[in-house]
Amino acid sequence: MKRSGTDKIILGASTLAFFHNQDYTWKMVAEATQRIISLNLGVEIWTCPQRVGRILSNTDYAALRVAGTDAPFISMHTQLNRWDRGALSQEIDQCTALGAMTLVLHNVTLDCHHPASQPDYPEIMRLAQLARAHGITLAIENGPDQLWFLDQILDRIGDDPKKTNIGVCIDIGHAYMSKDAGRQPIRAYLERYKEQLIHLHLHDNDGQGDLHRIPGEGLIKWPEVLETINKIDYHGPAVIELHSTGDPIDDIRQATELFDHLNYRTT
User: Does some domain include residue 5?
Assistant: First the structure.
């Protein structure tokens, strides 16, 4: 079932809301996934860096796969905060086992720490084609002030996701914090990468800290964000990615209600 705030985006939520700064088990991840899907949302499976390299058991995979059966979409957020070709290949295998169609990557995942970095582009391209063979697309996500990262990958590998199997995930909260994109950084990021955009992360902040607040509880002007999303004709997954301090489901529901309300006001 499609949920949207623009008539086009497909809303989902990240399991990060349930486990930010907490330990957890894969059974807990499966339960969080089911709770998210109960709201008719897609789900992004997000796990902590300290679990890099852990191999899920067949029981773990089965529980998560069943939990996500009715989701509008399933994506997975990388566990990796460093370049590790073998571990990244394993994450692609995990996506396959979980039924995820997108794997979201950060700059450090690809060994891009600063504009002068020289990552292993040929190996990144091979991994992208490995992911394609499994029906998975890689999405590179912007951190704050990371036009350089997105441009660097797209310039060196190619800017057509259909050919490269590498698209862009625009994180709205990170874009809002950015000082590298003018006075309207969210609009600038969305418009700059509209041809590569395959995924969104939605959360709010005060323009200074990466707070991952519920949309509407920070300073981001969400009606303008949705207008820009409509303008660029984006109609893919949009994941609510929160650092929840209360009941995660209540927080996620509050965010979806905001987008439903804005859809009513702006259409």
Answer: no
Number of domains in the chain: 1
User: Residue 2: inside a domain, yes or no?
Assistant: no
**CA proximity to 92, closest of 139, 153, 138, 160:** 138
pTM: 0.93
CATH number at residue 244: 3.20.20.150
Helix 26-37 × helix 248-266 angle, to 10°: 30
Within 13 A of 195's CA, how many CA atoms are on the CB side? 9
For 118, the token pair is 């020289």
Residue 62 placed within a domain: yes
- State yes or no: pLDDT of 266 exceeds 80: no
- Inform me whether the pLDDT recorded for 23 exceeds 80: no
Average pLDDT along the chain? 90
- Does a structural domain hold residue 53? yes
Q: What is the pLDDT of residue 54?
A: 54
Rounded Cα distance, 34 and 31, in Å: 5
From residue 249, alpha-carbon distances to 16, 17, 220, 241 in Å are 12, 8, 22, 12
Range of the domain at 258: 10-266
